[in-house]
Amino acid sequence: VALADLGRLPVTFATVDPVALIRNAVWANSRRAKAQSVSVEPGQLPSTTVLVKWDGARIEQLFTALIESSLRYTPAGGRIAL
């Protein structure tokens, strides 16, 4: 956040699949969630996707931060859906 405030956060736009980014974030956090007995799911994703011009790495960081924050406050047996 500090780098963003200073305008020093590099942003690299590329064509990405947002559904793939969500699935990657779910997969990357699945081990920790399982250890906490919490289910992490991609939610209801569209059957087709629209490619977008985003900074995929930053968006994956965002999804991961949301999941990590949710894991802190979701009790065992709970469910997190993006």
Per-chain topology:
Elements: H1 2-6, E1 14-16, H2 18-35, E2 39-41, E3 52-54, H3 56-73, E4 79-81
Helix pairs in contact: 2-3
How would you briefly describe this protein structure?
This protein has 82 residues and is α+β, with helices and mostly antiparallel strands. The chain is 50% helix and 15% strand. It has one domain (10-81): Histidine kinase-like ATPase, C-terminal domain (Heat Shock Protein 90).
Protein model, in words:
There is one protein chain. The protein has three helices and four strands, in the order αβαββαβ. The protein has helices at residues 2-6, 18-35, 56-73; strands spanning 14-16, 39-41, 52-54, 79-81. The strands form two sheets. Strands 1-3 form a two-stranded antiparallel ribbon. Strands 2-4 form a two-stranded parallel ribbon. Helix 2 (18-35) runs parallel beside helix 3 (56-73). The two termini are 22 Å apart.
Number of domains: 1
Q: What is the percentage of strand-forming residues?
A: 5-15%
Largest sheet: 2 strands, antiparallel
CATH class division: Alpha Beta
By CATH, the topology is Heat Shock Protein 90
Number of strands: 4
Low-pLDDT parts are none
Q: Average pLDDT, to the nearest integer? A: 89
